[in-house]
Amino acid sequence: MSDVQTLMDMGFPKERVEYALQVTSHKGVEMAMEWLLAHGDEEIPAAAAAAPAAPAADAATATAATASQDNAPSSSGATEAVAKSLKCDDCGKVLKDQTEVEYHAAKTGHANFSESTEEKKALTEEEKKEQLALIEEKLKQKRVEREEREKADALERERNRIRSGKDMTEARRRMEEIEMKKIVDQRKREKEEEKAARDRVRAKIEADKAARKARELKDSPQLSDAVASVSSTTTSVTSPTSVKSPPREYTETRIQVRLQDGSTLTSEFNVKEPLSAVRVFIQVKTGIETPFALMTSFPRKHFGDDDYEKPLEVLGLVPSAVIIMTKAAA
Fold this sequence. Notes:
Radius of gyration: 58 Å
Number of helices: 8
Distance between the termini: 103 Å
Strand content: 5-15%
Helix content: 40-55%
Oligomer: single chain
Number of strands: 8
Structural class: alpha+beta
């Protein structure tokens, strides 16, 4: 019975059987049956190509043929037995043709074959069912193994993804810590520089006060009274048409600051000092850290950013002035 008829007896259509044998290179009923079971829902081409010729005999077949020739009787008169099949000398399995020999050799690794007069019997219905059940069981086992392997691969990919996510989170956390440390160090440096600037202004204010007190001690009260008397006499005897004395040049100015809570601060400054010295003086005395602005009421004037670098005498705050502390402009 041919392979086509055997597979048709198992219930497969002739077209699919022929196509399965062609795809498996006519390597036997088992391989064709496996293909049919694995591709049961696959459509076959409308016109399948003719099946290729069976491959040439391999080393195992050549060995079997040689052994058959060696074992043939030398007597010309003896009746030669007709070889109806091939037999595996390693396991004793009877094989139908050369294709089954090649498949069996590739599957088991057996290499010793010989011709046999025993005809390979066609499979009975029970044997067909058993063989079909065995093949289905193997295919089911392969599917289970494939599914387990796919699950293991998916689990490993998920572990790698989680591990990569943890590494990214840890790297991001380290970067945030580094950035935060930079910000803290920058703020610390700014506070130190601001404190140093306040200390310099405070030292300058104290030095000016000390110099002013020294000048006051140097000038005696009697000399001041004499100068005032001479000035009064000169003014009384001078004719209206006489030339006026030049205006007095001030080196100090008295600044009174009205704070936002209604209290006041008063201090004397050198007329050459900028308006920013007054702002630093307010910060030192009050400890205020938030920005604020300064203005005068008579005449009403809001000091801008450029005004804080100008000397007090240029801003008209000599010999005395009242400055009001206000909120910084938005």
